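Risk register update: the risk that structure generation would not scale has been downgraded. Supporting records follow, first protein first.
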Amino acid sequence: MKRTQSTMPTPQPLTDLRKRVPEAKKLIADLLTGLLGPVELDYDFYREWNGCWKVRVTVRGKTAGTLDFTLLSTPSGGMLAMPRPLPERWRTQTGITANDGTIWTLDDAGNLIPFTGSHPS
């Protein structure tokens, strides 16, 4: 696992999506419903050149648009769906919750770090 400055392991790109598509859909639906309210979602899963899985999600409802997510595996084996780009309010105020209960964000340099509830530096 990649380590941050504090030597804490960080999530790594998810390269094996077999049997985990329903888990990814639920994770993204729960995240967006919690942040935006009730929404309808369409999912388009695809692989990046480096083998990492991404998902393009089309949102319909009161809020509409398209979001891309990078799928990551947390140090405990959970899944993190990190929006790319990460909206600033989510980055600094809420973080993104993985399905193992850990919460992650990006620091000002774009590094993945645990969310502490305060503005990341």
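Supporting record for the second protein:
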Amino acid sequence: MKKVFKLSVTFIDVLEDFGIADRLLGVTADNASNNSTMMAHMEEYYKEKYPDAGFSVTWNQVECMAHVLNLGAQQILKEFKQPVDKDTYEAGSDSSDDMVTAVSRLSFLCRKIRLAPKLRRLLEKVCKEKDVKYLVPIIDVVTRWNSTYDMLVRAVEIKDVMSDTFYQHKDRNLINLVLTEADWNCVSQLIDVLAPLKEGTLLASQNGESLMVTSMIPIYDYCTEMLKESLKIFDENDDIYIGIESAIEKLNHYYDKVSPMVGIALILDPTLKKDFLKNSLGWQVEWVDSVMDQFTSSFRFYHEKLQAFASSASAASVSTGTSPRGFGNYVKKRRTSDGDADGVEEFVRYFNAPLAEMGTNALLFWKTNQFHYPILSAMAKDYLTVQASSVSSERAFSSGTDLVAADRCSLGGDTIEMTQFLKYVL
């Protein structure tokens, strides 16, 4: 508990140092329990120090999309991690499920080739004989479900040369583990089940617009829908069926915890707006209506902020006898005339406008339309900066080992901080 408290204090100190503590909108973190505890401590701090900020775990915490998908995939794969004895090559499980035994044997064979120089050389020889590209099998790692998916895809790609390698090796025990055509069909079925989760993980792990929190609800819907379709091709007693059901249950658990802030951000995506929110899976009408009410309240808040800013700017120009010049300010003045004093016209205009084409860059859209929708564009600048995944920050931490190497181990903390900052913003 002391460590978690120290984590929240350190986080708050960083926010205060940068002068952004009172403007914190979203905190994206993985699903470790200490992060939720940290957020609870921060909620107490904000209630005392910044009561008007309305900071809360329910509103401001965003569960990392990539980690949620990982948890879902692990539910599917947990029955497939059956060991094979490295000495006798006998399966360490009495499972009768064909898919489970096929994947377990394949995992063992991939590891056998990868870790045995003699087998790798033989594999390379077979590839040359068959005039195919030499590719080494991928080893799956327990903590990274993507590695299991990658292992399966790579194995299917080189299945013929893999089989020939073991036949030429002439180890009868290994030959007995070689997959049959029926086994490979099972592997292909598992790949099809995992493919949507892999696609969602890649989307949530990229830099740029794809990381925006607006992608969370569509990714949840897509993965859940595809998993439900996969259930139709398996028997209820199959291990894979039970795993898929558990994965759907896991995804729904985190889907129910999605912050209303995510809904507001989705509405600000010009390719989706509120129609997608209404058509999303599992949301009660009351929740959607609540998001719309909070969207409206947030719109009014930003409208009041912009009016206050405009009034202070106008007073400053009068006192100095000057007025802002330039085409942009001219258009802005015309767009924010008294004809739309309460912002209702802008609000209605946005929702009545047709959806933007799929693939439209939301950030660029709001930059281009900042004078057409001044209030909504101000909201978008805040809400669309919230990330759907913590992968980018984890990537930044991991890259620190490249900077603080053995020949640069005396770098000061400030130097490391600024170097990493410049590396990712320039």
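Residues 1-62 form one domain. On this basis the risk owner (M.S.) recommends closing the item.
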